[in-house]
Amino acid sequence: FLEDVKVQARGELHASESKYHTQRRIALALQAELLQLYSRLETEDSSTTASTSPAEGAV
Amino acid sequence: FLEDVKVQARGELHASESKYHTQRRIALALQAELLQLYSRLETEDSSTTASTSPAEGAV
Amino acid sequence: AYYEKVGFRGVEEKRSLEILLKDNPLDVEKLSTFSQRFPLPSMYRIHVWKVLLGILPPHTDSHALVSRYRAEQFEDVSSALTAMRFVNAATPPTELYLRMYQLEIQQLPRRSELRSPVGGDEHFLAVARAMEEIVDDPVDCYWMIKCFVNQFNHKFGDSIPHLPKSLEHFLSQEDSGLLAHLKASGSLASLPYSLWFRRCFAGGLPESSLQRVWDKVISGSCKILVFVAVEILLSYKIMLMGINHPDGVFNFLSNMPQENTDAIVTKAIDLWHKYCGTPMHSV
Lengths: 59, 59, 283
What we know:
heterotrimer, A: 1 helix, rod-shaped, C: mainly alpha, Cyclin A, domain 1, 15 helices
């Protein structure tokens, strides 16, 4: 009977742990996506600067 | 003794759920950041388009 | 006679399954044995599959809690994918399930490199499309696809490459003439093995027949796939004997007629019991 209680608890704990591990993977995927976006922003920022600087030089 | 096992199991489940909720908050914060970045990127994209179109119109 | 053979036995079987389902905790072993021996009544199929696939634990007291956890996990993953713009409201559910699965196993491609599905993705999608026909609720559907695919690969991954040999063996027992023809025409090497042994006939059999095959796969047998393949070959023997090109055979079997599939599956299950025995645990 005691064993029974333990098995039941393990079943519930597994399901909870599964949610937790999935959340961790979600966070990793989100971080990867953010990283990509930041580097895209930087590239765009620097290209904007590059294209405007000749004009500034002319003034 | 049985009661003991049950209390312990409940404690473990709580701990696991608490870990889960923390991770979940992290993921939600990352999602909010992502949303901001997307809108920033879109603004920049549209301003790039806006600034080039007059030039094209002039040609 | 039909009623006696199928109907009456069906009632008895249903009653014994109901008794099994009243156990708390559920005896997963006995449920597997039942499912190996008898077709599952459709009203209990999804519930039994969820227990056999480990989506629900044996203790029925935990079912409500665990179901809630499963639903939360589904919601977490799908909303994250929406936030990342991998999916949107217009994404077909099967593609959503694929991306969810990829995220969970950490194999989500970069968004900039999202390609049309390849290889293993196609197998997953085929299983997903078939499961979608069987299971209405999206949360249940996703979990069943995911656990079906995982369990299948985990339990049978090592056996799959041997199934074509096994098919050859049993076909030689049942119809050596047909086997000889398939060998001579070069067709044996290029039968639709992926459809049969990787997708478990998803997309090849209509859902009513397919679920009876999956009853056996989910409860622990991949051998059943071989016997379904054997019975398909036997059923279309006359047609196949007239095709001398491997491509012709492949194309015919990949798009086989959907008419007699129930009878084919019934014969396949009989043949499987004949060669592999009926599990004898008392139910």
